[in-house]
């Protein structure tokens, strides 16, 4: 049975102490460039654990298994392609990990008192979960849903095409997760993915301002008094600068 | 138990624009003043310095400068048949917290509201008669006219160093300014800001359609400026980090570097930060305020006795404190009786997204919060709105307030929200797209109001404010009519594609719209329909004054900070008269 195969493979890898992301490398359904991206995101984790535990790129919040799922999710949402960098290669999974490990993940600016009701779409988010908990439960739900509906495979074990199909189903509200509403999880994931992709590089995503370069956003520079009229209807082609670049 | 402190003559609750103006003006009386601010101290240096302040994630997405709703929030529902649920994270609007209040992170758009906005009832009745006002619409005049407020608007504009071009100097209309504005005694203190390509396109297109475009008033100074109080402003860098950010060069007017330090310098003024006011304590007859209770950073409770209390705690905070304190009778929508919480309103948005070819460079990242070209041809009172089937109107503009890419990356409808096709569309359109927006007025309705929530409480054990609000047919018609105008302007720009954004069916607390909450403690001339008299003094408790947009009986097609500033000065003058002869300034 496909279910059993999936479970077995994960168990074997866990037993070997191999991270979930590295598991992507042995999955024959995933093309080489994605394997590379996943390995890239996973490698620093292994490094952090084996050396000092403080490497800047180690995952702080996600378990290795969760990290593998998040890498696969981000790679599906923003793949590396002929348009520009992929979300994984610019560090978006690390960005999400950092956010969830900090004040944002704890819901430090959220009202989380009960009672809890479902409400209307106009009333907004009503779950009792801060983002870190939403991810932890949402990832487990996603995997359970994938195993049940996708031939026994967890999300990271799906082929890129199947990952896309799965996320489209979730986005369209066609997925029933066991614990959290699938669309809640998806919308927060998409929002955080975009934040990491476009935010200042000091947060772990948008490495080397690669995304700003792609769209032509100069970043933190913000000194346009002398050029705003000169460059009216003209391309303003400058190397983007991050906050660290300018500090 | 609360530790009782030494009495002060005046206590001011909140230290944003209104609290800052009141503190500075009332300091001149020599009376002892204590100002209580729920948030912490903030200053340009070190809190808003370059380049760290140019951080979209921290300020625009994570709301560092704004109200932390884990401590205090409100509940919301569209109508009374629903159960209100908490606003669990910020969304639709972004109240401030800390010294300077929301005036630290505003865009810096200091409008004068149009004369119509101050007396819509009088003008509607005079032009159309009573039959055109929908039965549920609770339209009210302010009780103070534009002409009476004009010197106070002027004072606020010179305080802020507003850049702009007059369109009506003492009745003389001036081309290139806003010919629909009320008469002003003098021009703005600074010339208009530099223009972007988006602004140039808008101006040309609007003119070609026979409209009257003008540079929007901007409290982002177009040149170095020293205001009448001697406060120096830098010249705007057009950095594109205004709204939701502090300004590193003090080019965006804010109370934190103008009126607040001037007041703080006076020996009779004491400012306490991290001092969160819980309620105003009244005497047994509920006709006189005796003190306020507040909690400090360590959670200790204090009672601050005062001879006079001025609430300056944002529109929503003021109404919340009035309801918690029993100042004025709470509004009951079923009977129509009561006034506190009545006439809550917001604004309605619509517009057009204008997509250009790849040879047209908009460079929207170069900008400033208030850098915009506008038309008021379809704003309140400027045209025959009743002929179009509604009451009200809106300001139409294209704003170059900064193309920060987490929040701004327009793609045409039908584009997926992720994946390669999405990315391709973002790259294609990021630098070649602009938005035209309608900021639509919203009238007050019987069904839209604020009261105390029966279930949810804040961290301090107080009932949350409950907001019951939805858009009505009148506003839907207006926003649809103005969206069509926006589309027409976009088409006249020679765009590749113009996408209409109609108004939402229902008001939602989720997406950001504007921090333009109004009403809930309306000013007026009749204590049966307004919570405050024309001097922003509460009808029932004569030693409590309330300033801010909560006093506006309905919302307009323009941002509210201009009239908020003007009304703060107006109220300060009224309080000075009150102090000479305490009692109600408008006998009932």
From TrEMBL, chain B:
It comes from the Bacteria. Residues 446-568 form the Glucose-methanol-choline oxidoreductase C-terminal domain. Residues 233-344 form the Glucose-methanol-choline oxidoreductase N-terminal domain. Keywords: FAD, Flavoprotein, Oxidoreductase. Belongs to the GMC oxidoreductase family. This is GMC family oxidoreductase.
